[in-house]
Amino acid sequence: MTTAHRSDALTGPARDLAREVLIHGPITRSELGRRLGLSPATLTRLSKPLLDEGLLVDAPETIERSIGRPVRPLDVSVDSQRFIGVKLTAGEVFAVSTDLRANLGAECVIELSGHEPSQVVADIVRATVEVGGMGGVTAIGVTVGGQVGRSRWVERAPFLGWKGVDLGGLLHDALGVPVVVENDVVALTAAEHWFGIAKGIEDFAVLTIGAGVGYGLVIHDRPVVNSDTGLGLGGHFPLDPTGPLCAEGHRGCSTAMLSIPSMTASARVGLARDVGYTELLDLADAGDPVAAQVVGSAARSLGRLIAATANLAMVQTIVLSGEGVGLADRQLPRILEASRADRDPDAVPVRILVDRSGFTAWARGAAAVAIQASFA
Amino acid sequence: MTTAHRSDALTGPARDLAREVLIHGPITRSELGRRLGLSPATLTRLSKPLLDEGLLVDAPETIERSIGRPVRPLDVSVDSQRFIGVKLTAGEVFAVSTDLRANLGAECVIELSGHEPSQVVADIVRATVEVGGMGGVTAIGVTVGGQVGRSRWVERAPFLGWKGVDLGGLLHDALGVPVVVENDVVALTAAEHWFGIAKGIEDFAVLTIGAGVGYGLVIHDRPVVNSDTGLGLGGHFPLDPTGPLCAEGHRGCSTAMLSIPSMTASARVGLARDVGYTELLDLADAGDPVAAQVVGSAARSLGRLIAATANLAMVQTIVLSGEGVGLADRQLPRILEASRADRDPDAVPVRILVDRSGFTAWARGAAAVAIQASFA
DNA sequence: CTACGTTATTTCCACTATAGAAATAACACA
DNA sequence: TGTGTTATTTCTATAGTGGAAATAACGTAG
Question: What InterPro entries does this protein's entry cite (chains A, B) (predicted)?
Fold first, then answer.
């Protein structure tokens, strides 16, 4: 791992070029020229300094045999920089070390010693040491479930009891590297967009299924955010007027129908015992009537949510991510059936992409926003 | 009206500047510089030729008294060009003549003599004569309810029985001016975005209420369109499981609950007589139980649709347009109440903008896409 | 084994768009 | 009438751009 010292921040067209190579993997100069609308000459001029400083490298030429001089695609030197991604939950700090494409290296989980900002900061610092320390780290991203402003300020994070905490400032003081704080769903969406299963797709929505239900949106190749982002509006979408209640009193909303705790709690009522999520899905597959009912209505709800999203957000691709995507794998036909029912038969079928990386997707998202910040 | 002959099409930064002035009305050079990221010197250089050719003019200085040299805002010469907008329905051609900001001049309605492309083209040509002929017309926009490709090709227009008709080509041959064909809802959305009630707003959705229910979306200052645009996906959003059926068999979808024909048909069942839309709204206000039921559930459905749109499309502004917006004016409290119920109490209230121009909004939309095409 | 065709990439160079600085313009107010 | 203040234009050096030609790196045909 070479530590490339970036003398000055990327700017203008050079930044665009680096971003394009970062996202679209090994890519020839001619293809880059087409995408960015630049001439070959300009491409050479712009890529030269980036090659010199080690950010870009000549990729091994592809095996495609054709006439003429072989192409020499450009690629980013993924190991030239390290990033750290941290996902905060109510009880734990989950940290990962990644390369320039948010590929995971070391991971660690640390119990939160408390909810005081100073305690959380200390825990995060400990976690960064666990995943390899700050050596060669370009930036660190931290995500929370809640509203975040200006990439550093936690406006509101109910699960920590925070309101107006300058987490970015505190961490920057403690670590001395650039810190990016972001909402967890926004960050996960960004990771899918640049590095994940939706890489290169310009319009899509993300649904996360886990402790809650999250909703993220990318339109025109840019994430959609507004002042309500972080409130989880897409997570309480009404889906089933006969469903159970969520913690905020919505009957049959997406969280009530789809979140892991809600599903297992529903199952517990009928089964009269505790079940885990995977066990619940297994039971449903095995024909247990209670489990089949809970899982089946969750699947149908997910289908309806997918259709509603495709219709109103005008996307044709939906990414499913989080710990609870097992539902999608096990119940895909039912989901598709419910989705089709709420969609015009002449419309193209919604493309459903499932990110099966589970909980690590959250920390990867945190790293992704740190990476993005250094290319913006 | 001076006919400015545009020697060559606008290009690059000059086009951006003209577009900015067109949309943001009289605007000072300094404000333009801020918005476009250009220096005052560049502003002068770019605006010079546009002033010379008559597209831009120095606006009368505003009355704001302040220190220093008064600003001399730039504005477009709205009368320097004419455009024609045509909205096709199953039975009529509705045509308007507009200026550069899609302000209406002459209007006319002509009965369609038939659904054959040649007949429709002939009727459109007659309509253009009615609204003043082709003198000084820069471009003409035509909209249909259906799917349109490449701004000229009608892929699918069920109300005319068309599939794959090169309406743009036929009209261009007949009229000799640039022709833009577009989906009616997309065009109406574009008109609200550039010239209408949502002028300058970067993220909003449009709901049209009329013979059907239409749905348009603008995100990141750009319309959202995809291959399904024109199918009316937002127009059949499920809202009330106990509602009536729409023509496509959806129970309680937005068209079934909100469209004018569906509402009056529902009322007819209970009232045992025909009622007009306005009369129905009047009856509801007067306390008639049948009308109150139909109108009340329509209002609640609209509220739910507004909330769903705001949550999933992540917009905070919703524009209501079309002939049926009387519902919004009469029943606003009920709409807002239903909308709030499906939205997080901590979220900002959805801003609802009502375009009361009624049916003419459709033809204005057609003109708007013609105008936009000459600035793209 | 060499010359040639083909395509990718780089080098060279003229040109254009840009912004900074200075100049000028247009007011209010003293 | 002069001065302060802000808006706009003019002048000019410069950075960024793309076209054309040169060079590079192959495969292939002779």
Answer: ATPase_NBD (IPR043129), ROK (IPR000600), WH-like_DNA-bd_sf (IPR036388), WH_DNA-bd_sf (IPR036390)
The verdict on residue A1 lying in a domain is no
User: What does the pLDDT look like over A26-63, one tens digit per residue?
Assistant: 888 888 888 888 888 898 888 888 888 888 888 776 66
Q: Give all strands (DSSP E) within B122-279, no chain letters.
A: 137-144, 147-149, 153-157, 162-165, 179-183, 204-209, 213-219, 222-223
Residue A7 lies in a domain: no
Name the residue range of residue A55's domain.
12-79
Output the pLDDT for position A65: 61
CA B17, C1' D2: Å apart?
Answer: 38
pLDDT tens for each residue of B289-311: 988 998 999 999 999 999 999 99
Chain C bases near protein CB atoms (7 A cut-off) = 5-13, 17-22, 25-29
> CA A169, CA A339: separation in Å to the nearest integer?
44
Average pLDDT over residues B244-269: 88
CATH number at residue B222: 3.30.420.40
pLDDT digit string, tens, across residues B130-160: 888 787 899 999 999 999 989 999 999 988 8
**Contacts of strand D, CB cut-off 7 Å?**
A 12-13, 37-42, 45-46, 61, 65, 67-70; B 28-30, 40-41, 43-45, 47-48, 66-73
**Length of chain A as a residue count:** 376
The reply to whether A232 and A323 lie within a common domain is yes
* Percent of chain B clearing pLDDT 90 (strictly above): 53
pLDDT at B120: 93
- First-last CA distance in chain A: 24
- Same domain? For A231 and A137 the reply is no
B347 neighbourhood in chain A, CB within 8 Å: 228, 231, 233
My answer on whether B125 and B23 are in the same domain is no
Spatial distance between the Cα atoms of B122 and A365, rounded to a whole number of angstroms: 58
My answer on whether B132 and B259 are in the same domain is no
CA–CA dist A222, A215 (Å, integer): 15
CATH of the domain at A67: 1.10.10.10
Task: List bases, strand D, within 7 Å of protein CB.
Answer: 4-12, 16-21, 24-28
Predicted TM-score (pTM) above 0.70: yes
